């Protein structure tokens, strides 16, 4: 079993096929399926830290990736598996304005939902919250359902304006993906270059997909 680690704001995963509380019988018989436990909140609410997720290994040379798809990949120069959502692909232009994604000149639509409220933990890692939570209090994050150009919809979390919520337009070259975490203010994703974030992700570095997210 591997334990993988990289900065608080990256989506870190531990291979968890052997965890008693994360048992994956399919994983034991299908080498293309691997079970993971996320140890950060970068992909909340789709993937909650400490919960199990199943990744299907893929050959990036034979797969067509889609906007909104959740992928596992290894950033250039690293062997740690990160999990983020594809927001833009080769040929796209992506921009951030006040926390909203502008894809090819159009803002991705969002529908506001009830706020996400979770108990504030007693120990690290501590989530980023909209409110100033007290220990044993609640952590509140705004929640909205976003829909991308492929038609995929997913919920995103927001805690207010932060520096990565604004990014000038970027053209994504062929063979690369621009990825983001669903917890937009708690993810060191493609909005930031290495080593702060992961930068643009070569499609050749994608190792798997999370089909149910």
Would you give an account of this structure?
The protein is built from one helix and 15 strands. It has 213 residues and is mostly beta strands. It has one domain (13-210): Umud Fragment, subunit A, CATH 2.10.109.10. An eight-stranded antiparallel sheet has the order 1-2-3-15-4-5-13-14. The chain is globular, with a radius of gyration of 17 Å.
Chain-wise SSE layout:
Blueprint: E1 13-15, H1 25-29, E2 33-38, E3 52-57, E4 70-73, E5 82-89, E6 93-97, E7 100-103, E8 106-107, E9 110-119, E10 138-147, E11 153-158, E12 167-171, E13 176-180, E14 201-202, E15 206-210
Antiparallel strand pairs: 1-2, 2-3, 3-15, 4-5, 4-15, 5-13, 6-7, 6-12, 7-8, 9-10, 10-11, 13-14
CATH topology: Umud Fragment, subunit A
Helix-strand topology string: EHEEEEEEEEEEEEEE
Number of helical segments with 4 or more residues: 1
Major beta sheet summary: 8 strands, antiparallel
Our measurement of the CA-to-CA distance between the termini, rounded to an integer number of angstroms, reads: 24 Å
CATH homolog superfamily = Umud Fragment, subunit A
Characteristic key phrases:
single chain, 15 strands, mainly beta, disordered N terminus, 38% strand, globular, Umud Fragment, subunit A, 4-stranded antiparallel sheet
Task: Give a nutshell description of this structure.
With 213 residues, the protein is an all-beta fold. The chain has one helix at residues 25-29; strands spanning 13-15, 33-38, 52-57, 70-73, 82-89, 93-97, 100-103, 106-107, 110-119, 138-147, 153-158, 167-171, 176-180, 201-202, 206-210.
